[in-house]
Amino acid sequence: MMHLTKQLLAVIVLAITSNWALAKTAPECLKHLGGGFSDAQCFAGLQVDMVEENKLLYRKIRSKIPAGNRHAEVLDAYMAAQDDGVKFCELQRDAGAGWETNPDGSMYPALYQECVFDLRKVQNKFLTNLLTMANW
């Protein structure tokens, strides 16, 4: 049992200290877009980071809204609508693929990921501005 515990501890330490566990997508990837799969990876990685930032902004804003205030429900509805809106990015991707819902590994997944990234970027700007107003 002790040997297994040491192995598990070693794996955890390795995971925490390795680059792959701490790696985030570098915004630098936006400077090297070329229409292929790496574009999809770039946008997907950046939007994952932005989703986390948006959740943090949401929690900060939500904490400023008094208990029982209807604006808490409005904020919750906004966040849900933003999540629901992501599905509409499939339209752009599938239109470029002849309306096929399972496009190949060409540029079409990049169109979808760019659309999602753009939506999350707009959401981030809105939430950042909202938090600024809430802090006045």
Q: Average pLDDT value?
A: 80
CATH topology: Substrate Binding Domain Of Dnak, Chain:A, Domain 2
SS elements, strand count: 0
The class by helix and strand makeup works out as: mainly alpha
Beta-strand content bin: under 5%
- SSE ordering: HHHHHH
- For the record, the CATH class is Mainly Alpha
Runs in which pLDDT lies below 50 for 5 or more consecutive residues are 8-23
Q: Compute the gyration radius: what is it?
A: 20 Å
Please give the domain count. 1
Question: Overall 3D geometry?
Answer: elongated
- The CATH architecture classification is Up-down Bundle
Q: Distance between the terminal alpha carbons, to the nearest Å? A: 56 Å
How many DSSP helices? 6
Layout of secondary structure:
Blueprint: H1 2-17, H2 19-22, H3 37-64, H4 71-85, H5 89-96, H6 108-134
Helix pairs in contact: 3-6, 5-6
Keywords: Signal
Organism: Paraburkholderia domus
Protein name: DUF1311 domain-containing protein
Keyword list:
single chain, 136 residues, mainly alpha, Substrate Binding Domain Of Dnak, Chain:A, Domain 2, 72% helix, elongated, signal, DUF1311 domain-containing protein
Explain how this protein is built.
Helix 3 packs parallel to helix 6 (108-134). The protein has 136 residues and is mainly α. The radius of gyration is 20 Å and the shape is elongated. The chain has a single domain, classed as Substrate Binding Domain Of Dnak, Chain:A, Domain 2, CATH 1.20.1270. The model is unreliable at 8-23 (pLDDT under 50). The protein is built from six helices and no strands.
